[in-house]
């Protein structure tokens, strides 16, 4: 079965919002996510294919409700847990 | 997931992860700054426009560009060391090309600059392969019924760039002036020059 990211040809996504917003980042956290990805990949903690797979295997509801860089962040967290760099829930425990 | 996608929430989570990884000695904030800067250095639609203007004014270069885009843009100093392949697709008076990445967001960043949100949107990715003529009309590009449209779906290995048609009455323009006419959307294929 196709994964949720394989949207080519599917119907129901509505009109294209053609607003031209080619500034690289729309918030500082988006830039930090790009930095995190680059640093973790450079250190060999995971590679591009693993990263892409982590995005594409997101549950459809989460994938569709997340923005572009939110998907990147979720994928990074997933891989860091899978690789044992952080423990499940460790990110949430730091709260407060 | 909480379903709360407010910017403040995600910004806090990203900051927390960065702190956590710094505490574990996995990375440093300074390293992140370097990577962020490097990710943007030299990425601009002015680069793609330069390639187009050269192709419009140098028939031999144009032939090389269409035969092997990767090698031809390297002549101008672009995409050196890249493992990706570039294929340049040419618009004519009977054919129009447009690029997409249906699976995600692949795109020749160095030549086109940062991509707009719509390029990464589900609406564009899902629809441009099914009804390109209608999608192009939404961008204000109305093509004659007889024009054949080809949609190129990018992949991890191959990126595409459109070589737009040179506008009429530009014989007296030099390469630099011609390059100034070429927009990012013309290089994607959602606009003409």
Annotate the secondary structure layout:
The complex is a heterodimer of chains A (96) and B (193).
Chain A (H helix, E strand, L loop, with lengths): L27 H15 L5 H9 L3 H6 L2 H15 L7 H4 L3
Helix pairs in contact in A: 1-4, 2-4
Chain B lengths: L6 H17 L5 H12 L4 H13 L1 H9 L1 H7 L9 E6 L4 E6 L8 H4 L4 H4 L1 H6 L4 H7 L9 E6 L4 E6 L11 H5 L4 H5 L5
Helix pairs in contact in B: 3-4, 4-5
Short description:
The complex is a heterodimer of chains A (96) and B (193). With 96 residues, chain A is mostly helical.
Describe the protein in words:
The complex is a heterodimer of chains A (96) and B (193). By secondary structure, chain A is mainly α. Chain A has a domain at 28-87: Orthogonal Bundle (Cyclin A, domain 1). Chain A has helices spanning 28-42, 48-56, 60-65, 68-82, 90-93. Chain B has 193 residues and is α/β, with parallel strands linked by helices. Chain B folds into 2 domains: 7-40, no CATH class; 45-188, Nitrile Hydratase, Chain A (Alpha-Beta Complex). Chain B has helices spanning 7-23, 29-40, 45-57, 59-67, 69-75, 109-112, 117-120, 122-127, 132-138, 175-179, 184-188; strands at residues 85-90, 95-100, 148-153, 158-163. In chain B, the strands form 2 sheets. In chain B, strands 1-4 form a two-stranded parallel ribbon. Chain B has a two-stranded parallel sheet with strand order 2-3. The relative contact order of chain B is 0.17. The model of chain B has no long low-confidence stretch (mean pLDDT 93). At the A-B interface, helix 1, helix 2, helix 3 and helix 4 of A face helix 1, helix 2, helix 7 and helix 8 of B.
Shape of chain B: globular
The CATH topology of the domain at 28-87 in chain A is given as Cyclin A, domain 1
CATH class of the domain at 28-87 in chain A: Mainly Alpha
> What sequence of helices (H) and strands (E) makes up the elements of chain B?
HHHHHEEHHHHEEHH
**Number of helical segments of chain B?**
11
Structural class assignment of chain B: alpha/beta
In the predicted model, the low-confidence regions of chain B spanning at least 5 consecutive residues are none
CATH topology of the largest domain in chain B: Nitrile Hydratase, Chain A
Runs of chain A in which pLDDT lies below 50 for 5 or more consecutive residues are none
What is the residue-averaged pLDDT of chain A? 90
User: Which strand-content bin applies to the residues of chain B?
Assistant: 5-15%
Radius of gyration of chain B: 20 Å
Mean pLDDT of chain B: 93
- What's the tally of helices of chain A? 5
């Amino acid at each position: 079965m196709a994964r949720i990211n394989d949207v080519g040809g599917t119907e129901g996504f509505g009109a294209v919002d053609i607003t031209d917003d080619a500034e690289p980042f729309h918030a500082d956290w988006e830039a930090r996510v790009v930095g995190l990805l680059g640093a973790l990949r450079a250190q060999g903690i995971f590679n591009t294919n693993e990263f892409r797979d982590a995005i594409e295997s997101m549950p459809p509801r989460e994938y569709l409700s997340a923005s572009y860089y939110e998907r990147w962040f979720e994928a990074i967290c997933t891989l860091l847990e899978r690789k044992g760099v952080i423990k499940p829930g460790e990110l949430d425990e730091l709260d407060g | 997931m909480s379903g709360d996608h407010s910017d403040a929430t995600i910004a806090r989570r990203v900051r927390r992860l960065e702190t956590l990884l710094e505490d574990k000695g996995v990375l440093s904030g300074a390293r992140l700054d370097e990577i962020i800067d490097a990710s943007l250095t030299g990425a601009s639609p002015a680069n793609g426009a330069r390639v187009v203007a050269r192709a419009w004014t140098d028939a031999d270069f144009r032939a090389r560009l269409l035969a092997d885009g990767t090698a031809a843009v390297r002549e101008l100093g672009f995409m050196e060391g890249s493992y990706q392949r570039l294929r340049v697709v040419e618009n004519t008076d009977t054919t129009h090309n447009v690029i997409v990445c249906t699976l995600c967001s692949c795109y020749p960043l160095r030549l086109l600059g940062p991509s707009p949100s719509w390029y990464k949107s589900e609406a564009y990715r899902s629809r441009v392969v099914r009804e390109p003529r209608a999608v192009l009309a939404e961008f204000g590009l109305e093509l004659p019924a007889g024009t054949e449209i080809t949609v190129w779906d990018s992949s991890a290995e191959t990126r595409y760039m459109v070589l737009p048609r040179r506008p009429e009455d530009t014989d007296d323009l030099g390469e630099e002036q011609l390059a100034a006419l070429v927009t990012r959307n013309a290089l994607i294929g959602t606009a003409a020059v």
